[in-house]
Write a structure and sequence with these properties.
Blueprint lengths: L3 H8 L2 H4 L9 H16 L5 E7 L6 E11 L4 E8 L8 H15 L5 E6 L4 H9 L3 E12 L2 E11 H6 L6
Parallel strand pairs: 3-4
Antiparallel strand pairs: 1-2, 2-3, 4-6, 5-6
Helix pairs in contact: 1-3
The structure holds coenzyme A.
Coenzyme A binds next to strand 3, helix 4 and helix 5.
Amino acid sequence: MDDWVDLHAIESDPEVARYQGFEPRTVAETQAYIEHTLARARAEPRLTYDLAVVLHGSHAVIGRCGLEIADLESREGVVWYTLHRSLWGNGYVPEALRAVVDFGFLELRLHRIWADCDPRNRPSYRVLEKIGMRREAHLVENAWLKGAWVDSLIYAVLDREWQARGQAIK
Ligand SMILES: CC(C)(COP(=O)(O)OP(=O)(O)OC[C@H]1O[C@@H](n2cnc3c(N)ncnc32)[C@H](O)[C@@H]1OP(=O)(O)O)[C@@H](O)C(=O)NCCC(=O)NCCS
């Protein structure tokens, strides 16, 4: 729960929330989000891994990067990520997301991992491209976000593709 202070500095920023499904968070919303995250982490079976991103040697939370098993039967997971605005452009989220995708394929034995993002959010889809995810679809006005219909890009990667590129530790 102590992480709420760091997380709030990130998620109360309108630029960070701009293309996400939430408005800049209030303190109460940030605290409720962490409570919800902790409850999901205790669920059996555990389906959600909403993890803090920290710099090596530090405990300060600079972002979060997560994975949820969206469908157990088809072994499919979905990922997401966010970073404090002052640290954008250092490659931190690609590094964090690679680790989360490794975890999804190696530990959770997923078959397919996907992500969606708003096509206007170039930094976000660049992260997906940099780690080698494939653009599979451009959905048109499939979501109602902040008072408008918006498009979505769908990116994905399969377990065998990830391993063929040697990204996962065998
Ligand atoms: C998307 C996000 C997580 C990227 O994380 P990151 O660690 O900065 O990723 P990278 O360092 O690899 O940079 C990715 C792209 O961001 C862009 N970028 C870099 N610095 C930037 C800055 N200061 N301002 C705006 N965009 C910037 C660049 O286009 C870069 O791509 P390039 O390397 O091809 O030029 C981060 O921008 C963020 O937290 N955005 C708000 C939350 C969000 O939209 N999450 C995704 C929801 S789908």
